[in-house]
Amino acid sequence: MKSEFRIKSFCHVKNNTISFNGSVIYENLESPDFLAFAKAAYRNFDIKYSKFFKMDGLSKLALLASDVILKNEHLDSQKENNIAIVFSNKSSSLDTDRKHQSSIEDADNYYPSPAIFVYTLPNICIGEISIKYKLHSENSFFIFDSFNAEHLLNYSNSLLSIGKADEVLCGWVEYNGTTYEAFMYLVSKEGITQHTKQDIIKLYTI
Amino acid sequence: MSKVYLSYNNITSPLGFDSETVVKNIHHQKSGLRLINDKNILPVPFYSAIIPSKDVSNDFERLNISGDFTRLEKMMISSLSKVIKASNKPLTDRTGLIISTTKGNIDVLDKNSTFSKERANLSTLGKVIKNTLGFKNETIVVSNACVSGILSVAIAKRYINQGIYDDVFIVSGDMVTKFILTGFNSFQALSDTLCKPYDKDRTGVNIGEAIASVLVTNDKNELPNEAVVILGEGASNDANHISGPSRTGEGLCRSIESACKEAKVTSSDIDYISAHGTATLFNDETEAIAFNKLDMGDIPLNSLKGYFGHTLGASGLVETIIGMHSLYNNTLYASLGFDKHGTSKPLNIITKTTTKPLDIFIKTASGFGGCNTAAIFKKIK
């Protein structure tokens, strides 16, 4: 099936490696866990978002992946950039949910904190990216059992075809404390890859 | 593009287990909020609207469905099954299912829960509802903070316009849990009195729980009396702060403009605003700024939080359903808890339940993460 929209670029963050359009652009195989990896990658790419260190794992993962894609767009923040953000994952914000839960479980060890609680929503990572790139666009966070190319395809086509967005930053950002994986891609009117379910799956599984 | 309608609907809440009963209670300005003093949930007393567990069980047992279900699952299954039955629609491969929730079965993380921790996964909740009620397609779970309920309506419409589905059933719900209350309390966002949206003396939110279900369809036949057509919708991020609204109402303004543009209406066409009105200082002030910027300050407006509390991922849909009935009944319902104007810009708060010919209303919502959504509806009958 042909599509009127194209995939302009894509990014993977997994296994201590960040790749852009299929080529490795950063790896740090010594990092003991994602948070150490994320810190090193943040410094390497000189991202400049001081809140990064206060963010939870899911937001760090989403910000790293979207920075790779959006930096390449050389956005002019003085102009209107109508790039919608449509993310999905399996574990929602459960890693942070468990942290909040452990802060309220025991009356003798009771320390609920707004700095943690605010991250008990998966769409907070979209908020962080919107702030960093000044995107006043459409956004939504979906939960599926596994990567759902068909849903992302249908929903981003819908946003583009009814004119709610000029481009859509789409993807899967899964972080559950022990494992992590981000796959993000930019859907646009131009680009080298067709925007079809098969093409999305092909890029996802690279 | 074919028209998309909001059709059969249900609200399950402390004010009743069907939309008509809930609306009747709102007409009589009855609130579901009560003072609760339970140190196992929160060290301080709090106001909340909680559905009695006995009523949840009784309502669910009528269905004769066997299996081990959480409290939220029971309420979602009961509520949604009523809407499926009323609509008389078969569940085919052209039928979608959306679940709108912020926290789903988050209470299973508690050490005393008898359910497996895996049940906290929202995709598991999606599977339980899909399989129990016999949907063919995978559940789409929308978890986008406090705009989830109204955003789900926009998403359902987009799916139908895209030609993927003909019918989409939405069930939205969140519960009052220790998890949620302790979190909002840590933000010092909870009011120690009944919440007072837009009032000068407002001090914060009351958290409540509710389930709302609706059929979104392109089938203009067999619609109930209160059905509405969706004229337009839009969502926009503030790109300003993750836990507070933009002081300028930027995202809210943009979402309303996006909805108005698609609906081809201007502020003078809108008869009623069903606003978010959480009763926090900043939220209500931001809304007043946004509505005034868009020349909507004189449109009759209410917040329904004084009846239900803030029902999080359900609130947008609960309030949309009340709006549908408001149009059909030609009645503007009083914004409970409001006495004295308390925003820097004027708002036309509905202080007394009044009858008036109504045709078009707008529903707006804002949430953590800077998200805002607006949708505009017009009555059919």
Radius of gyration of chain A: 17 Å
Supply the CATH class of chain A.
Alpha Beta
Which protein chains are joined by the largest interface, and how many residues does each one contribute?
Answer: A-B, 51 and 56 residues
- What is the CATH-assigned architecture of the largest domain in chain B? 3-Layer(aba) Sandwich
Structural class of chain A: alpha+beta
Write the CATH architecture name of chain A: 3-Layer(aba) Sandwich
Strand order of the largest sheet of chain B: 5-4-6-8-1-9-16-15-10-11-13
Rough outline of chain A: globular
Whole-number count of domains of chain A: 1
Q: From the alpha carbons, calculate the radius of gyration of chain B and give it in angstroms.
A: 19 Å
Alpha carbon gap, first and last residue of chain A: 21 Å
- Characterize the quaternary organization of these chains: heterodimer
Q: Look up the CATH topology of chain A.
A: Peroxisomal Thiolase, Chain A, domain 1
What percent of residues of chain A adopt helix (DSSP H or I)?
25-40%
Strand-residue proportion of chain B: 15-25%
Query: Which structural class should the secondary elements of chain B be placed in?
Result: alpha/beta
Low-confidence runs of at least 5 consecutive residues of chain A: none
Q: How many strand elements of chain A? A: 8
